[in-house]
Structures are given as C-alpha cells and as structure tokens.
Amino acid sequence: MPVVLFAAPILSENAARMISAIAALPEVRTGVISQAPLEDLPVPVRAQVSHWRVVDVLDVAQLQDAVQRLEARLGAADRLVAAYEQLQVPLAEVREQRGIVGMRAEAARNFRDKARMKSLLREAGLPCARHRLAASMEDALDAAREIGFPLVVKPPAGAGAQATTKVDDERALRAAVLAAAPDRERPVLLEEFVTGEEHSFETASIGGRAIWHSLTHYYPSPLEVLRNPWIQWCLVLPREVEEPRYDDIRTAGFRALQVLGMETGLTHMEWFRRPDGTIAISEVAARPPGAQIMTVISRAHDFDAVAEWARLMVFDAFEAPPRRYSVGAAYLRGQGNGRVRAIHGLDQVERELGSLVVDFKLPAPGQVPTGSYEGEGFIIVRHPETAVVQQALQRLISTVRVELS
After folding, report:
1. Which one of 54, 74, 227, 283 has the lowest number of neighbouring Cβ atoms within 10 Å?
2. Which residues pair with 151 in a beta bridge?
3. What CATH number does domain 130-192 carry, 3.30.750.24, 3.40.50.300, 2.30.29.30, 3.30.1490.20?
4. pLDDT greater than 80 at residue 221
C-alpha cells in the first residue's frame, strides 16, 4: 500500500480537496503535515488521514521529524507532496535525505528562485524579461540604468504577483528598495516590465515529458489587479488551446520545463504576448495553479483535475478527456472599505447568464475582505464557444458589485 504524505501550512479548503483526492486513491495510506490542527479538516477527511502538527512547516528539521513520526504509524513514505509553492524546496531536501521519489532540491531551486530561473531560461535562448538581483540601493540604480524604466521589483522567491511592485522612475525605485531593505543574503529582483497580454500555461509532465497542457488569458494582468484593489478581473480558458497561434508558447513552455528540470508533476507558467506578437516567459511554478484554475480546467474537460493531479503525483499517471468547453472565472472584489455590506447586480446577471454558471462562491454580508487578488468570491461560466464565455465574463465584472462599508 503506497504511503503518501501531504504538507501544507494551513488546512484550507483547497488543501482539504487535495488531501481528500489523495486519500480516495486505491489502497493509499495518507499522512498530513501541517501547522494547523486536524480539526481544521472536514470531518469525513479527518477519518481518512494520519496527522502530525509542526510549528513551522517550512523548517526542514521539523519536516524530517514529522515524516519519521508518520512513517512510524503508516510505513515508509513513497511520496512527499505539496501544492504550496514555498514548500517545494524544503520538501525536495527531505526527499533527498530520505530517498523518497520526487523532485530533487536542485530542480526545486530552479523553479523557486526566480532570478536563477530567468538566468537559466535566457542561457537556453528562451524569451523572458531582462533582470538583475540587487543587494543594495546602488545595485538597484545600476540595474535601472541597464534595463530602463518601468521596472518590476519583487523577492526572488515570490509566488505569482505577490509582493511585486511596478516602479516608473528613480523616486519610486528608491522607495521600493528602501521598503524591501535588501542585503547580500536577501536581495531583491529587478526585472523589465513587460507590456502586452498576460496568460498562464499549465502542463502535466511524466518522466520529464509534458503529456498535457492548457492555458488561460488574464483580463487585466495580475499586477494591475494588485495595484488597484477595486478592479474586478477575470480569466478565460479558450476551447481552442491547440490552435497554431499558441505554437510559440507550447514550444517555449515545454523547452523551459526541460531546462528547469521538471520530471513528474503539474506546473503553472505565467507569460506575456507583447504588442508585436512575440512572447516572454514571466515565471514558472512547480505546483498546481491557484485562483480557481483547477476548477476551470475541470469544467472545460468534464473531469476532476484535482483527483487527476493526485493520481499523477502518486502513480505517475494522468489522463484528461477532450476539451469540450471554454470556461472562465470572474473574481468579485469589494468596493470601498470595511466589511461586505451588500452584493448588487446578482438578479440581473442570473436572468441574463444563469444558464452558463457552473460554479460560484458569493461574498456573505459581514464578511471581512480577503485582501488577496482573488477577492471576496467568484463566478465560473462555461459554453462551447469561447466568445460567449468572454462576453459573459465582461458582463459579470461590469454588473456585479460588492459593496464594503
């Protein structure tokens, strides 16, 4: 019976979905390592797992101890997995130390350290933003002179667009660098601000070969969403993912995974199409995508993408039915300050678009804003025609309004 250990800092709804998917696999014994108590999992899931609580799930020594404790209950671990990006390197180090199958530490660092990643991609001739690490204000100003404004300032080990700042001039750069307080041990990453349409590119790989892919379009870009907390945004998974217009990102994306050392797992890449039609890879994460993209993929193919991720990570197997639909998600973000007071426009969109809605999570009155780019709720729609989905999403984000007070 395979023994699979899943690690997560908190036992969120997404973590519970993944733990449940692993536990549902045939003859699998499941262990959970977390900073959160077992009681944070839904009751049906608790009975399916063995749990070990740690103070800091990112600490390799504590992970090592937790693995040993769970192995004493379940038997030797066959797999050690997580969906949280910050855990990829610590887990890889534990796998190496204990001889557990899975991504090794060097490859995990290639994905986690964005400066290292971009250097490897550029050395391989792959298109990505120009960048420099800065350990001081002088380094940052030198980088600005070399690359030019506007720039993006972020930590080398950031996740997605988190902790990312766009700077348009030297004054803004100085403020961002002062706030980051970089040094030789903890520099900041400065990179070219790429303009154009922003997208994601998801893949499933087995044994170093990409065997499935998908992609989405963001409207507007995640960085613009972060800079403007009032903006409601959306993403679209087109039905026509196999069209020739995506040949360039398919070729570059698959090659990038080889360069970075992906063996078996799901990846989430963010990339741009510039106004001149060329592409630029922003960054790649060796984990499943967030922002409800797994649900969007599930609805496009009429299958459970999370369950298939679990099968991929445990049994090195992945199959997706043909893509039957275009699917999109609209993210509902609070307008104003305070708690959620009311949601406006729902009756109207239900009348107009109700037949297209396949999933939703609506903000509750009195709810405290999440403070994240995903907002206070979402509505997911699907249709065989991509244009219908795009029109529905624009209608959703322009009609539904979450009032804070």
Report:
1. 227
2. 167, 192
3. 3.30.1490.20
4. no
